[in-house]
UniProtKB/TrEMBL annotation, chain A:
<comment type="similarity">
    <text>Belongs to the UPF0749 family.</text>
</comment>
<dbReference type="GO" id="GO:0005886">
    <property type="term" value="C:plasma membrane"/>
</dbReference>
<protein>
    <recommendedName>
        <fullName>Division initiation protein</fullName>
    </recommendedName>
</protein>
<feature type="coiled-coil region">
    <location>
        <begin position="77"/>
        <end position="104"/>
    </location>
</feature>
<keyword id="KW-0175">Coiled coil</keyword>
<dbReference type="Pfam" id="PF05949">
    <property type="entry name" value="DUF881"/>
</dbReference>
<dbReference type="InterPro" id="IPR010273">
    <property type="entry name" value="DUF881"/>
</dbReference>
UniProtKB/TrEMBL annotation, chain B:
<keyword id="KW-1133">Transmembrane helix</keyword>
<protein>
    <submittedName>
        <fullName>Putative integral inner membrane protein</fullName>
    </submittedName>
</protein>
<feature type="transmembrane region" description="Helical">
    <location>
        <begin position="56"/>
        <end position="74"/>
    </location>
</feature>
<keyword id="KW-0472">Membrane</keyword>
<feature type="transmembrane region" description="Helical">
    <location>
        <begin position="26"/>
        <end position="44"/>
    </location>
</feature>
<keyword id="KW-1003">Cell membrane</keyword>
<dbReference type="InterPro" id="IPR009709">
    <property type="entry name" value="DUF1290"/>
</dbReference>
<dbReference type="GO" id="GO:0005886">
    <property type="term" value="C:plasma membrane"/>
</dbReference>
<comment type="similarity">
    <text>Belongs to the sbp family.</text>
</comment>
Length: 262, 110
């Protein structure tokens, strides 16, 4: 039997230096069943340990709320309570709204709400006449070099500046309005040739709209570059009387009509 | 031999009975298990060192479990329960590793 020196890694092996074989023999001797009082006691402890490990592993694998600490539970409860009260408020609010709409006793109110939506949508779609503060801009273009693209730019500039309703000459501008260049410099809008000068009427914040027309590289400068000029009149009230025909969409169906709500 | 069989027996009993851990014991059981494991590995190392003593093993096993549970209990009362649990687990983990390293050197000389 050879004594192989061990590498002292933690210093504790310096005094006791058993060989590997001694260690194995000791392990075997310890493993042999000797029913002394000490081993039996150790066995009982081992049973307890194994039991605890199995129970704890099972507990952890299906740990729910019961594994959390008090602080975590309180926080969780707070969150749930907040959610609950918020959602209850919403339920109450929506129920009130539903009752208002559903009961015929409040028909007037429902009608008013519907009318309000109708007006807003009518102005948006161009099916309703509108009036309000705005600007009247005249684009003079004697050389007929102003193109459809420039007119589209002007319209976009107006929309960016917050124009809510726009009319060009006697045509109302809507969501589906389109421009095209016609023969010999003519510009058409929605298929109708626009006569020069273009008169654009827009309803919105009139000062903002007027300022937007004057920005460098904007509508006025483009007109000047094309050999024309623009005049912008700021009015407290302008009237937009031109209307667009109401077109029924061929493909798009409103969601709540496709699947009627109860 | 008997303790190893006991460990196996305990696991089987635990799996078979499927008991639920009582609420008051839940924070302490994992820590107690780690502490007991530390005692077990310490015992194996003592066997290999030739200095194993039944009484020392039983006492160290029980005291490890009790002290670990006490530390967690105290930590819970002081409001630092989770941090102390982590600390206990780290310390016991380090001890288990060093014991395992010693066992490995005894058995495999490496």
């Amino acid at each position: 039997m050879t004594q192989i020196p061990q590498t002292p890694e933690d210093g504790r092996d310096l005094d006791v230096q058993p060989s590997t074989r001694t260690a194995w023999r000791r392990l075997l001797r310890a493993a042999s069943p000797r029913p002394t009082k000490g081993t039996l006691l150790a066995g009982v402890l081992a049973v307890a340990l194994g039991f605890a490990i199995a129970v704890q592993v099972r507990q952890t694998s299906n740990a729910g709320l019961e594994g959390l600490r008090e602080g975590d539970l309180v926080r969780l409860l707070d969150t749930v309570n907040q959610d609950n009260s918020r959602l209850s408020d919403e339920i109450v609010r929506l129920e009130v709204q539903r009752d208002e709409l559903a009961t015929s006793t409040d028909l007037e109110q429902a009608r008013a709400a519907a009318q309000q939506r109708l007006d807003a949508l009518g102005i948006l779609a161009g099916t309703t006449p509108a009036s309000g503060p705005g600007i009247v801009m005249t684009i003079r273009d004697p050389q007929a070099k102003y193109t459809a693209a420039m007119l589209l730019d002007a319209l976009q500039e107006l929309r960016d500046a917050g124009a809510e309703a726009v009319q060009i000459n006697d045509g109302r501008v809507g969501a589906s309005t389109w421009f095209a260049d016609g023969a010999s410099g003519a510009v058409t809008m929605d298929g109708r040739t626009l006569s020069r000068p273009f008169v654009i009427t827009a309803i919105g914040d009139n000062n903002t709209l007027a300022a937007a027309m004057e920005i460098p590289g904007g509508v006025s400068e483009t007109a000047r570059r094309m050999g024309g000029d623009t005049t912008v009149l700021i009015r407290d009230t302008v009237d937009i009387t031109a209307l667009r025909p109401l077109s029924t969409p061929r493909y798009a169906l409103p969601e709540n009509q496709a699947s009627p709500s109860k | 031999m008997i303790p190893a069989l006991g460990l196996l027996l305990g696991v089987i009993i635990g799996l078979a009975l499927q008991p639920t851990v009582p609420l008051w014991l839940q924070p302490y059981l994992p820590i107690a298990v780690i502490a007991a494991l530390d005692a077990v590995f310490g015992g194996v190392r003592a066997v290999l060192d030739g200095i194993f003593n039944d009484k020392v093993f039983v006492v160290s096993f029980l005291s490890n479990v009790l002290v670990a549970a006490l530390i967690v209990f105290l930590g819970d009362k002081l409001g630092v329960g989770s941090q102390l649990s982590t600390g206990v687990v780290v310390v016991l983990g380090v001890r288990i590793f060093s014991n395992v390293a010693s066992i490995r050197r005894h058995l495999f000389n490496a």
